[in-house]
Amino acid sequence: MTIREELFLLAENDYRRFQQKLLPDHCELIGVRLPILRKIAKRIVKEDYPLFLSQGPEDYFEEKMLKGMVIGYLDPEKAGLDTIIASINTFIPKIDNWSVCDSFCSGLKHARAYPELFWGFVLSKLKSSDAFTLRFGIVMLLFYYIDEAYIHQTIELLDAVRHEDYYVKMAVAWALSMCYVRFPDITLSYLLGETALDIFTYNKTLQKIIESRQVSPEEKARIRLMKKRN
InterPro entries from the xrefs (predicted)? Predict the structure, then answer.
């Protein structure tokens, strides 16, 4: 049985219809839940992941998710970091929606284990003009570089992003809101200063901070007053 045949056997029509409402129209879905995909991905890693990554189909949303998950589950000591980074590089151009992008980034725990090694790699993606390559770089900052060592550099990099794509702007807003959650004083000082953010991204950042359950009502009231008008 092929992986695609297995996925269709595991599909749920109701779940597929639900997912379709959340994703762009061009995404072809089978309707397999993420926990099941993760289970299959772990099995593939134990079997023949090089063949799957190089030849496995990727016409469907779930097939792309599977490839991203497999890369995330690779053991650096067995596969080698060079192989993992090469696999990431090969996969990035295939990202065509926010869900695959963000799920892929969240699974790349190698960046947490080797932050300095991945830092330069992430910076290279932030220079891309491709929307989802750029979103990849932004979301990697969000997941792995909002900490004591990198917070100032991360905010500076987010402030420097220039792209008109909606999903890029929303990624910047999301990342900056997480900067605020973890480093409120540093991020507030930045937001009150001369940022280079366009009004849409700035206000979306405030909105996401206000929506956070980790921000107090008093802080939210202050953030609301910072909204910019066109």
Answer: ARM-type_fold, DNA_alkylation
Q: Which pLDDT value is given to residue 26?
A: 86
Contacts of 34 (CB under 8 A, 6+ apart): 65, 103
pLDDT on residue 24: 83
Q: Where are the domains of the chain?
A: 1-108, 113-230
Of 39, 38, 50, 44, nearest in space to 79 by CA? 50
What is the DSSP secondary-structure string of 4-40?
Answer: HHHHHHT--HHHHHHHHHHS-TT-------HHHHHHH
Q: What is the per-residue pLDDT for 22?
A: 87
Number of H helices and E strands in the chain, helices first, is 16, 0
140-155 as b/e: b if 16+ CB within 10 A:
bbbbbbbeeeebeebb
113-230 has which CATH code?
A: 1.25.40.290
Q: What is the mean pLDDT of each run of 10 residues along the chain (230 residues)?
A: 93 93 88 96 93 87 96 94 95 95 97 96 97 98 98 98 97 98 97 95 97 96 91
d(CA 173, CA 202): 7
